[in-house]
């Protein structure tokens, strides 16, 4: 039987496993920050509790587990590189000082649209609806290209020792995949291992990379296919271009 996603179940799981701070305390703080009623976001992450707030529901207040804080410098860099895709974010301290697992509190602009996983379902029963779907998909692809081109133009650099550490870790990752995946993948993994030095050469570009580019972290207009934003950059890293493709 397929599992049906439930925001309330995910919220309950978060407070049971990630923090000793209560949901009521989080709601009270979100209310004090926004000064207006709050509602839970329809999609909840595994390491955060998110509510929609503000007089016009224009703000997001997010409480993140200690194991998954935002790096504010990384967020500022992401905002600079992708000003039309990444929301402005401010840090509002921690909730639950002295608790076993305090939560970091962030407030950000609410981006319009729905998650990609929600927006992708469209009626394709007629030729006309299929053409409309293809048109929306083309808009989405163009926006994806714009997002990655922005990253390319925002070239980054790392000290040599950090680059070497990344290359070493990725070689370990490939070795682990070789041990765990079926034999039919062995040729591909051998090719990846052989080409790994190329993407870490001086001529290959390092860029800021959204390290969790999944369907719930991409927001879009379901009517047009236009991407309105990318969220949850907690794991963004500087990596060789293309790691998120």
Automatic annotation (TrEMBL):
Coiled-coil segments: none
Pfam families in the record: APH
Membrane-spanning ranges: none
SUPFAM superfamilies (UniProt xref): Protein kinase-like (PK-like)
Domain Aminoglycoside phosphotransferase: 74-238
Protein name: Aminoglycoside phosphotransferase domain-containing protein
Source species: Lophium mytilinum
């Amino acid at each position: 039987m397929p599992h049906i996603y439930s925001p309330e179940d995910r919220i309950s799981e978060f407070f049971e496993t990630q923090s000793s701070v209560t949901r009521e305390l989080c709601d009270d703080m979100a209310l004090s920050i926004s000064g207006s009623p709050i509602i839970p976001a329809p999609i909840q992450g595994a390491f955060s509790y998110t509510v929609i707030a503000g007089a016009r529901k224009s703000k997001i207040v997010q409480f993140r587990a200690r194991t998954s804080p935002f790096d504010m410098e990384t967020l500022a860099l992401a905002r600079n590189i992708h000003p039309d895709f990444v929301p402005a974010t401010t840090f509002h301290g921690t909730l639950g000082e002295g608790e076993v697992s305090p939560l970091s509190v962030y407030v950000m602009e609410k981006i319009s649209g729905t998650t990609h996983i929600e927006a992708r379902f469209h009626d394709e029963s007629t030729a006309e609806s299929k053409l409309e779907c293809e048109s929306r998909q083309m808009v989405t692809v163009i926006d994806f290209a714009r997002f990655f081109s922005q990253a390319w133009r925002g070239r980054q650099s790392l000290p040599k020792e950090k680059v070497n550490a990344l290359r070493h870790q990725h070689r370990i990752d490939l070795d682990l995949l070789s041990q765990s995946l079926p034999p039919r993948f062995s040729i591909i993994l051998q090719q990846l291992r052989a080409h790994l030095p190329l993407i870490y050469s001086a001529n290959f570009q390092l860029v800021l990379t959204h390290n969790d580019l999944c369907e719930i972290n991409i927001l879009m207009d379901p009517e047009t296919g236009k991407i309105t934003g990318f969220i949850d950059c907690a794991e963004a890293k500087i990596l060789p271009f293309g790691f998120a493709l």
